[in-house]
Specification:
This protein has 228 residues and is α/β, with parallel strands linked by helices. The protein has seven helices and six strands, in the order E-H-E-H-E-H-H-H-E-H-H-E-E. Helix 2 links the parallel strand 2 and strand 3.
């Protein structure tokens, strides 16, 4: 008899406060995105057997939004290995001059070009951003969360992870064994409150879907899609 596979849902936090003094804070839209995801799951009878989150405020706030829409969920296990990298430190390691808040589309594109360059340098070990772990240590933190799910989750169970774009794209990269350049592209295209789904057995994870927004698939939902 083939054992039932479990399902791991990895959710990126809702829209945070890009360009503000404290990015680590959901915007009202970010909370709405997560509440809508919870409502979507509630309408389909979703129940989770375990939850892991990073320790950042936007992770806790996103989980709270999901629970508000869902109605109930297990108490989360806080896993610091699911925390995001510091994008300012990543950029600063290559471009030490201060950057002001982007004010137009070209300045946003410039910011993300710098971020792409900084991520490549960090992942290749060419820079060590201030206050951050090496990429090998960052990646190991993500891998530890995935390994914990394999070790502790029962057959056929549903597990929720609420984290950030960097850890989620890194997890996908680990499963698919993608090169650094592909992992970066996955990272920069992941949307707020998006759902990535893994199937898992006691031995491994398998990618099923990436970066989905089923809860925003309605007439006005396109206006709620954000990336930062």
């Amino acid at each position: 008899m083939i054992p039932a596979m479990g399902t791991l849902y990895l959710v990126r936090h809702g829209q945070a406060s890009f360009g503000a003094a404290d990015y680590d804070q959901l915007s009202p839209l970010g909370f709405q995105q997560c509440r809508l995801l919870g409502e979507y799951w509630r309408a389909r009878g979703m129940q989770f057997d375990a939850v892991l989150t990073g320790s950042l405020k936007r992770h806790a706030q996103s989980f709270a939004g999901i629970v508000e829409g869902l109605g109930h969920a297990p108490e989360p296990l806080v896993w610091p290995g699911l925390n995001e990298y510091d994008s300012h430190a990543v950029i600063g390691a290559l471009h030490p001059e201060p950057l002001h808040k982007p004010a137009n589309a070209e300045e946003y594109r410039h910011h993300f070009r710098l971020l792409r360059e900084g991520l490549a340098a960090w992942m290749q070990g060419r820079t060590q951003p201030v206050g951050m772990p090496s990429y090998a240590e960052f990646s190991a933190g993500v891998a530890s969360a995935l390994a914990h799910v394999l070790k502790t989750a029962a057959q056929g169970s549903r597990v929720l992870i609420v984290s950030s774009g960097g850890p989620i794209s890194t997890a996908v990269g680990q499963i698919l064994q993608t090169p650094a350049e592909t992992t970066i592209e996955l990272n920069l295209r992941i949307r707020n409150s998006s759902v990535t789904e893994f199937a898992f057995t006691p031995k491994r994870h398998m990618l099923v879907t990436y970066n989905g927004l089923p809860h925003l698939d309605f007439a006005e939902g396109a206006a709620l899609v954000t990336y930062s």
